[in-house]
């Protein structure tokens, strides 16, 4: 199997390495030359290319797939970079080609983009990707929306890249990123709850060792989780998180989840308040903010602000 990856950043490069470890050939493109070179050095199964034109040509070489079934995965930052890449590709791909948006796009953008892509017969999949960089490298988690008839053609790719039971065909286009949006809303709420617990501990009359507490909770407790493991790691590095500011940016997905809950008139107070607490964190430094910042940094995003 062979596919092209556009975007060799934190997620893209790890997905590429994961793919070649599963004997999948990858044509790799990034605007950054060093990123392309790093990929070329990793494996002979990776063909780095300098342009999108070259990418499409290479994809057709020695591929067991017909030219009309090229698979192109876009893994660049959500928003303008993804949207403009998809707009460019919509003029370059042909009927039958498969285009995957694996970033954190708004599902509404994908529905809009699909109008043009579907007209041209390009099969578009919106894929929510979770599990952070370690998941991308060693077994990720994928929520996949798109054309049901085309899905079996790309299922082997996701079977290879995902951890066991770590991928799901979720339905028509839009359903992948919709599900990821809700996943990320839940993620906001879970991180906030963990952080608030530590803030109460910090104000308590007891002098807890937070690394030890997180470790304890990771061993058999109801709240054991990857997020709690990240808390344990972060407290191991900085026992009271004194070295960082409790400021947490947001990429938009929490906001979209809250907007969706408002549109559907479904109460989602925890997620809504978690989003607002992130906004508040940018205004003042708190223990809660420090914990969420440390946790969020632990799975690959938003650089820590240091004092
Ligand atoms: O998809 C993710 C993990 O599941 C990303 O971390 C996503 O960016 C989360 O949003 P934010 O950056 O606002 O925390």
TrEMBL record:
Record domain 6-phosphogluconate dehydrogenase C-terminal: where: 176-307
Alphabetical UniProt keywords: Gluconate utilization, Oxidoreductase
UniProt KW Aminoacyl-tRNA synthetase keyword: no
Pfam families (UniProt xref): 6PGD, NAD_binding_2
Top-level lineage group: Bacteria
Any single biological process term in GO: D-gluconate metabolic process
Single annotated GO MF: NADP binding
NCBIfam families per UniProt: gnd_rel, PRK09599.1
UniProt record similarity statement: Belongs to the 6-phosphogluconate dehydrogenase family.
UniProt protein name: Decarboxylating 6-phosphogluconate dehydrogenase
Annotated organism of origin: Lactococcus taiwanensis
